[in-house]
Every structure is written in C-alpha cells, then in structure tokens.
Amino acid sequence: MTRHETIEMLKEISVIYPSFAAKTQDPEKIVQVWQRALEGFSAPVIREALTIYFRTERKGFPPTPGALIGLVQDQLELYGPSENEVWGMVVKAVSRGIYNAAGAFDSLPEEVRRIIGSPAQIHDWAMMDAQSLHTTIGVNFRRTWRETQERRRNLGLPPALIMPKKPAPDSPRLNEKKNAEKSPGSGLNLNPGPGDDDTEE
To answer: Nearest-CA neighbor of 123 among 92, 96, 93, 101?
Structure first.
C-alpha cells in the first residue's frame, strides 16, 4: 500500500470509530506504522478486509493491522484461486508451449513462474502426453502450490494471487465507493505528502 492509500484507509476507520482519530497523538507516526505493517498487501485487498471488519465486528473496537491481515488470510479460499484453478492457468500456458514457450511462460503470474522455473520447462511439458501431464506433473505442481501458500500463511505473508471480487455495477460496495469519492475528508489530520500517491515504500 502507498502512503496515500494508507491515509485514506485510516480516514475510513476514523469515520466509523471517531475515538480512533481522537486518540491519535502523532498522525505521521501512525501512518508509518500501518503502512509498514501492511507492506506487500494491495489496497483493494485490504479495503475488502476492512469492509468485512466494518460489517462483522460487534464489540465497537477499531481494527488493527493484524485483524485485517487475518481477514485477508481467512478469505483466501473464497477470493483467491484454488490449486486447481492455478493448475488450469498452467495447462493453458502449456497448450501454447511448443511454438511459444517464452510467451506462455511470461503470461503466468510471478508466483507460478517461480514454481515452474523456466520457459524450457513449459516446452518440455508441452511435449508430454496428456495423461502424464495431468497426473504426475499436475499432482506435483498442485502439492507444491499448496505447500507454498501454507508457508506464506504461517509466516504472515500476503497470499499470492488473491484478488477481491469485482462488485456488480449496482452493488452497495460500488455505490459506497462513489459516495466516498464525493464526500469531504474526515477530521483525521492525515495529508499525503507531495508525490506519494503512486509511490510504494
């Protein structure tokens, strides 16, 4: 998340939990701490987790970075591709592997490319018979993907390839976003510095 995205998220929290802003003695410090804690997570993913928190938290406490990360991890199976879906991406790439192994390899997400290793591997798989590809290779790939994601969760790292569902055109979430863009900022005195909008730290 960028500094600007972090600030906008903190403003949203202060709207629902006014005490969150009232107790902020050092706005700059809290931005730095939250941004560091959520490093590696994209804004849409964290925004989805924050929406879920707003809708489900009943004790009246504002969220912590750990609470939002936990919700992201909880949603992995719902919003992220399963091992079978990821294997489907690989099979599609392999189908182009005889004549364009490099392009097929580059079309895959980085996490998947890391497991496969190189375009040469895509080419080799493309030369195999379908049964061997979907049994031996498929089983090994899915196991490796599953183990990789388990390690990421155990280390508290962002899940790979996870993306929030896109809201329908008339969905409440989309309307909320439009209204938020039109509404003035909250009382939390957090202002992005110059050039921060598109810069990751």
So the answer is: 101
Give, in words, the CATH class of 3-77+178-182: mainly alpha
Residue pLDDT tens, the chain, 201 long: 889 999 999 999 989 888 876 665 678 888 999 999 988 777 888 888 899 899 998 888 999 999 998 887 776 554 456 788 889 999 999 999 999 999 999 999 888 999 999 999 999 999 999 999 998 999 999 888 888 877 766 665 655 654 444 444 444 444 444 454 444 444 445 544 554 444 444
The one-letter amino acid at 81 = P
Nearest to 86 by CA among 120, 119, 111: 111
The three-point CA angle 175-172-31 to 5° equals 70
| Residue appearing with tokens 């949203």 | 12
- pTM equals 0.45
Query: Can you name the residues that pair with 188 across neighbouring β-strands?
Result: none
Q: How far apart are CA 109 and CA 143, in angstroms?
A: 17
Which letter does DSSP use for residue 9 in this model? H
Contact 3, 35 (CB under 8 A): yes
Beta strands in 28-112 (DSSP E): none
